[in-house]
Design goal:
about 170 residues; mainly alpha
Length: about 170
Amino acid sequence: MNRTTARNTVPAGLYTAEERARRDATVWTLIQGVLAPLQFLVFLVSLGLVLNYLLSGSGYAAATASIVLKTLVLYLIMVTGAIWEKVVFGQYLFAPAFFWEDVFSFAVIALHTAYLWALFTGALAPRALMFLALAAYGAYVINAVQFVLKLRAARLQAAAQSAVSAEVPA
């Protein structure tokens, strides 16, 4: 869907004016803004612990706990993100502006959930669990880049719209 501004000169980007107002007014935007870097920090620490275990064979418990924590933070950001999408776009997930990011988020969640399932059922040996965690983390990085690029494009779009608005007399 390609929405445009009233002047039809600059594509509207991610948000209509009403959606932008809802985004800026809801506490869920702040919550997402806090949880996203928190999740990234947990990811970095966990990645270090996983790599340490794979390289040294020690620290399995710490690596495992960090992966479980990373997964819980992922679930939290997904739930709060769905609420944010409902407030801003009127639907819990798969709003057109974030459709592909949401689709890929489910792949990320599936890999993290597969890790938890394998951990709690004993379906995989410790090294295999760590490689599954690395696959989940690789998917997470791709998804994070999707969101960062989308939000960067939205900022650039907003700046372009502001510039066009400033040039056009009222």
